[in-house]
Amino acid sequence: MSRRVVVTGMGAITPIGNSVEEFWNGLKEKKVGIAPITYFDTTDYKAKLAAEVKDFKAKDYMDPKAAKRMELFCQYAVAATKEAIEDAGLDMSKEDPFRVGVSVGSGIGSLQAMERETAKLNSKGPGRVNPLLVPLMIGNMAAGNVSIQFGLKGKCINVVTACATGTHSIGEAFRTIQYGDADVMVAGGTEASICPIGVAGFSALTALSFSEDPMRASIPFDVDRNGFIMGEGSGVVVLESLEHAQARGAKIYAEVCGYGATGDAYHITSPAEDGSGAAKAMEMAIADAGLKPEDVDYINAHGTSTHHNDLFETKAIKLALGDHAYKVKVNSTKSMIGHLLGAAGGVEFITCVKSIEEGFVHATAGLENVDPECDLDYCKGEGVSMEVNCALSNSLGFGGHNATLLVKKFVE
To answer: Under 8 Å CB-to-CB from 233, ≥6 apart: which residues?
Structure first.
């Protein structure tokens, strides 16, 4: 018998706030965290805007010496985890550390470390490369550092599926608890890739928006959309078996009930044009939860603001939900925080949990002229107060990775 899994803690570092409360209030207020890039001189770059995290100081979350041995993507993960563990009231001195695991992924790891050390290699030779380059750079170090900082000795994994990383990480944590391999999992995604090579690479791929107007740059489902805006940050949740959460009197935010994951087997950057892969992930998540399409109230779409994604994801939703697709509220958190790549699924899952908790679905900010081919209800204009019992969170990654999580209101 598989075990029920609940959400008991949440933590977020985002372009519109460095806590879940700030982030959620920002979404409700349609606060857009997109602005001209400050991390480097963009004179020679086509893409001028990004959604940077503001006022982040690693020493507020961890020992400054430990922070020095972490790149930004790891610092964000540790900071979000600290908030999530405190929110969950999880006291590790009372837990078996081997029953508390980590599933925190990063799509890329540290491009900054590679940039810095490659420059040194080219100018000063191999003897000058930082001895810590490898442990600073590799993507699994977010999970490693979270485990080390908080003494979590259970399963410690890092899923890397590009923009689907955060969602797969939470899904695999959910399965781990269901199966009995852990009682508690710290799960989510983290990313910090707003740097010259990151922006140049995505620009060369023509994936980024070259708009210079922050309010009309990340505009999912809009006829004028022309690429995504790179964001950064981390979203981490504490998942527990229901039994474990109840035994320690934890506050339960919501229940994770379904997870679906598929591969398009189609193209390295474009989703399958008929939406079949993403649709199947949604169908699997709904079936996993023992529900029907009609039970879904709200979908937090991948909604990147690229032409292909928004069109094919719309097709996928219609394929998965049939006529009910037209009755569901759909929105894109990326309209305000840009695309957090490997961290997107983590913060968007938190958005779904908050929507259930507060009965509110945020607007897709900046959406003015809905693409006629995108014909669902994308919460244009203002957010909607409504009861949300069941939400889906979608993530689609380069390589054809599709992941969907189904989260619902907790009922004993």
So the answer is: 12, 13, 14, 15, 53, 76, 80, 190, 191, 192, 337, 340, 343, 347
Of 74, 168, 195, 302, which residue is the catalytic one?
Answer: 302
Q: Say which residue the tokens 């505009």 belong to.
A: 219
Residue 307 CB coordination number (10 Å): 15
Q: What is the pLDDT of residues 272-293, one digit of tens each?
A: 999 999 999 999 999 999 999 9
Question: What one-character-per-residue DSSP string does 333-351 give?
Answer: THHHH-B-GGGHHHHHHHH
Backbone dihedral region for residue 17 (phi beyond 0: left; psi -120 to 50: alpha; all else: beta): left
Contact by Cβ (8 Å): 254, 261:
no
Q: What's the pLDDT score for residue 367?
A: 97
Q: Is the pLDDT assigned to residue 127 strictly greater than 90?
A: yes
Q: What angle do CA 46, 50, 54 make, to 5 degrees?
A: 150
Section 394-399 average pLDDT: 97
The reply to whether 339 belongs to the active site is yes
The answer for 82, left when phi > 0, alpha when psi is -120 to 50, beta otherwise, is alpha
* Given the residues 74, 156, 257, 339, the one annotated as active site: 339
Q: Quick check: 1 pLDDT over 90? A: no
User: How far is the C-alpha of 192 from the C-alpha of 190, rounded, in Å?
Assistant: 7
Residues 6+ apart with CB under 8 A from 42: 36, 48, 199
- With 90 as the cut, is the pLDDT of residue 233 above it? yes
168 in active site: no
Give the helix ranges, DSSP H, for 291-343.
307-321, 334-337
- Among the listed residues 74, 156, 163, 352, the single catalytic one is 163
Q: Model confidence over 73-113: pLDDT tens digits?
A: 999 999 999 999 999 999 999 999 999 999 999 999 999 99
302 assigned to active site:
yes
- Could you tell me the two tokens for 374? 């995108």
